[in-house]
Amino acid sequence: MDPITIPSGVLSPSPALPRSWTYDVFLSFRGEDTRKNFTDHLYSSLVQKGIKTFRDDEHLTRRGEEISLKILKALEESRISIIIFSPNYASSTWCLDELVQILHCRESKQQGVVPIFYKVSASEVRNQSGRFGEALANHEHRFKHNEKVMRWRAALREVAELSGWLFSDEYESTFIHKIVEDISVQVFNDHTYLNIAKYPTGIDSRVLDINNLLGVEENESDVRMVGICGNGGIGKTTVAKAVYNSNAQKFEGSCFVANVGEISKAPGGLAKLQKKVLSEILKEKDLEVTNVDKGINMIKRRLREKRVLLILDDVDQLDQLNNLAGGSDWFGWGSRIIITSRDKHLLVAHQVDPIYEVKGLNNDEALQLFSWNAFPKCKLSSDYEELANKAVHYAQGLPLALVLLGSLLCGKHLDQWQTVLSVLDNKKRVSNKKILQDLKITYIALEEWKTVLGVLDSYKRVPSIKIKDLRITHNALEDPVIEELMQKPLLNIEETRIWMHDMIEEMGEEP
Fold first, then answer.
1. Alpha helices in 283-333 (DSSP H)
2. Known catalytic residues?
3. What is the dihedral of CA 394, 400, 404, 409, to 10 degrees?
4. C-alpha pair distances (Å), 111 with each of 71, 163, 378, 481
5. pLDDT in tens, 447-501
6. DSSP string for residues in 385-412
7. pLDDT, tens digit, for every residue of 351-401?
């Protein structure tokens, strides 16, 4: 069987997760100026905030004037470098070499760099005047070759142009508090990366469309509510997660609230969601929201001065919006509220504007997604080409259907492909829900669906509990049948929580 060409993008790996850093912050400073005062106070405040910070302690051995391997490794593995420019900073060749390396990491590893001008001005660093000018002149006199000094001068000019902090006539504690709050926003938002999908096909173009509607890059100061609507299984949540990942770091606080409609229907559900919004955005774990009315007032009072990104996913009742994001005046200028729902009228009723309607995947995207699931090794033989195109045509661009159908056919023989697709081809497709119902029948024929529902039912403690809210024991996680089901697209497990897409669960509830 000869291999055929896979559409462009099928072999592309899924987007890489953000880099894992050993340290959140690396402190660069002149020891004789600030080690036992400003730098020590800043270090302590960062650590107390939960920010993992590296500083060069006095007991670390410095050999000659070379940066030690331990410090160089720490620098390269830090997400953000804070450079504390003090009057004698430039007199240290060690500090200047460290500065050059920091800017190299900024370019090669996309690290953040935050300069602090402590008892010196940015212009003094940029123009190398005053104490900085004297220090550089001494270095030029000392070194026969000036290439190193030229690199130092260029680095000082570059870093002085970056956005940073200037210490003025204020209390040091107040100044340090502002810096730590700013750094914590960057650090903690970086930890909120959401898993998107195993094969995020077609995501980038949709994220770009929504980002254009958000206007975040233009720094527009209005408070904007943007809706994402579409049929079940079309990919609203997946797109919303990707939008969150691309924007969370640009806000003072952020929160992604999943399954709003489902969770809010449980006793105390709305108050629980209000607490989640407040605690994640404010980074306060001990908040108490005793009732919904109190939660509304807390959100208004605590978030009206903050620039936040809030995503409310899978909303199905207006009351949920009224209690979680009742109006634009609840949030600070520049905030963005994103709401996903199947019900476009609900979004319109809440005056959400603009509204982005998620469309199905085009033929190339659909074939990519189907191929990833049907042929994990990305090898599609010519014998399967016509059947693969039939499967893609049947799914009509619905991502969930493509995942289900591709996974169902994965590893199956050609005659099994023909049987499944001939059955589906004879059914009249009138809606996305009908497509999924047809797939349910096909799964039942292969005993897959009965196995799923049977195993889940055996672990239910309350008959009426929804599958996505079901919590199971550690022993259940080790059940070989559960383990097998995790390999299928019907069932997912996060820690000790079983969940499945709401469209799939609805398929199981209907005859």
1. 292-303, 318-324
2. 98
3. 50
4. 16, 14, 35, 44
5. 444 454 454 444 443 333 343 444 444 444 445 545 544 444 445 554 444 555 4
6. HHHHHHHHHHHTT-HHHHHHHHHHHTT-
7. 999 999 998 889 888 888 888 888 876 666 777 888 888 888 888 888 888
